[in-house]
Amino acid sequence: MFRVFTILCFIIFIVTDIYSIEINDSTKVDSTYIKIMQEMTIERIILVGNDKTKDEVILREMQLQEGGKFNLEYLENDVKRLYNLGLFNRVDVVPAPLSSSKINLVFEFEEGFYFLPIPQGGIKEGSLKKIWGGVNFLWKNFRGRNETLNMSFGVGYEPFISVSYLNPWIFGNSHYFFQTSFRYSRTYPRSVGNADSTGVIFNKNEVPTYIMNDMMGDIRIGKYFGKNTSVSALLQFNSIYTSEYQPGRTVSQDGLDVFPTAGLDFTYDTRDYSKFATYGSYYYLKLSRSGLFHKDIDLNKFRFDLRRFIPIKLTNDYALVLSGRINSVLSFGGGEIPVYLKESIGYDNLIRGWDNFVLMGEDKLLGSLELRIPLLKPFYVKGSDHFIIRKVPLANKFSYRYGVYATLFFDLGGVWGRKEQIYDSQFKNGFGAGLNLLLPFDFVARVDFGLRKINKDDFKGQLIMSLDASF
Fold first, then answer.
1. Could you give the CA distance from residue 211 to residue 348 in angstroms, rounded to a whole number?
2. pLDDT by residue, tens only, the chain of 471 residues
């Protein structure tokens, strides 16, 4: 089973894109004029409706340039990048021919809320007893330059508070970016003990939780190379405390560990929509070192997250999406690894069908295959026509995005210790079907029914719900 799964994932990540590019829904172009337009020169790019957003924020995202040739593929990619900024509810493009050889492109924008409290919440570990809720105070497009100020908090199960600042584009054409954040959280992890923790599986209902308080501050600076590739460096400081000390929960016997972490990461992202992609790739690599000059913590980690989304066209305007993801962490170095630096499968990253279980070790490998079936392709509802929002002042002036996808999925994962080999791990797998609901404010609600095999003839099913699907 593991070999078959590995081969399927490998095929997904190496296959060349075999789909033809479609006209974006928000690009108003009659197909009969496409060939003619491809030969036209762009006289002007006219931006309309970006009352807050600076023109340079929009233009720097675009491959199309004034004086250059019109290119439909560039236009579609430009529209998707503008959506991924998260600044606009709608982006429409109207071509305006001037002659047989020249054309203007009119970009019409509907800007979203830039300063608003966004309700947030979730159901952790798929349990209705572990509901949390809060508010994300988000000031997007600060100064009209796509900078983001953020203050977020959650109450209920595993409360937290965080503040952050992001500037995604500094130093002009050099395109560096800068981010800094601070976070405090209280979590309720589980541990089966230091002696057995190199690679174990346990039922969450049979292992009691304990309280872990975590304070973290970080600074990140990076650089983009082209539109899709970036490299960044991170310096982070952690303070981990538990009043319920046991060996393995912290390195220090007083229950308090304070240490820095430094890291380098690489990102390549060509997804059409970062929250719920229907085509493209996402490759993330990171090398980090925790402890640095700390006498007790001396740990290196290499992690990668590879995702691939391949449309399978059935008709000109309908396509299934074959999605694959491989996520792995490899640890190396000396010293003890406390519970909070171990790797786990079974909290936010589940093997669906094994929702009640946690796999905990020092290294891990988790993979997923999904077939996404559009039931309602993404569409927009004007606030004035929205049955809930139409009577709400201000909110009824905007558009809201919805969509529904059915999914068939297969998950497989395992953990092991630094002194073990990957084949020493007992991999678990689950499979099933579900629904993904695309909701306003970039929420992707997910309801999955996962199955796992208990013995030769019996299976056990589980219902898993989430308000913020990550894959």
1. 18
2. 444 444 444 444 444 333 323 334 444 444 555 667 777 899 999 999 999 999 999 999 999 999 998 888 889 889 988 988 888 888 989 888 888 888 999 999 988 778 878 788 877 766 778 888 899 898 989 889 999 999 999 999 999 999 999 999 999 889 999 999 999 999 988 876 554 445 788 887 788 889 999 999 999 999 999 889 999 999 999 999 998 888 888 988 899 999 999 999 999 999 988 888 999 999 999 999 998 776 778 899 999 999 999 999 999 889 999 999 999 999 987 777 888 898 989 877 889 998 788 888 889 999 999 999 999 988 878 777 776 777 666 666 677 788 999 999 999 999 998 778 777 787 899 999 999 999 887 788 899 999 998 887 889 998 888 876 667
Q: Which pTM does this prediction carry? A: 0.79
State the number of CA atoms in the 13 A half-sphere of 451 facing the CB.
11
Burial of residue 339 (CB within 10 Å: 0-12, 13-18, 19+) is buried
* Contacts (Cβ under 8 Å, ≥6 apart) of 121: 131, 132, 133, 134, 154, 156, 467
* Residues ≥6 apart with Cβ < 8 Å to 7: none
Q: Which tokens in the block code for residue 283?
A: 């490759």
Q: Is 2 helix (H, G, I), strand (E, B) or coil?
A: helix
Rounded-to-integer distance, Cα 359 and Cα 202, Å = 7
Q: Are 309 and 321 in contact (CB under 8 A)?
A: yes
Identify whether the C-beta of residue 106 lies closer than 8 Å to the C-beta of residue 93: yes
In a 3-state reduction of DSSP, which class is residue 13?
A: helix
Cα–Cα nearest to 126, from 360, 354, 415, 428: 354
Nearest 5°: the CA angle 402, 408, 410 is 130
Q: Which two tokens stand for residue 170?
A: 């500094």
List b or e across 33-63, with b for residues whose CB sees 16 or more CB atoms inside 10 angstroms: eeeebeebebbebeeeebebbeeebbeebbe
Q: What domains, with CATH codes, occur in the chain?
A: 2-111 (3.10.20.310), 115-466 (2.40.160.50)
Give the integer Cα–Cα distance in Å for 416 and 365. 9
Question: Residue 187: which H helix or E strand, with range?
Answer: strand 176-187
Phi, psi of 37 (to 5 degrees): -65, -30
**Do the bridges between strand 299-315 and strand 280-290 make them parallel or antiparallel, or are there none, so unpaired?**
antiparallel
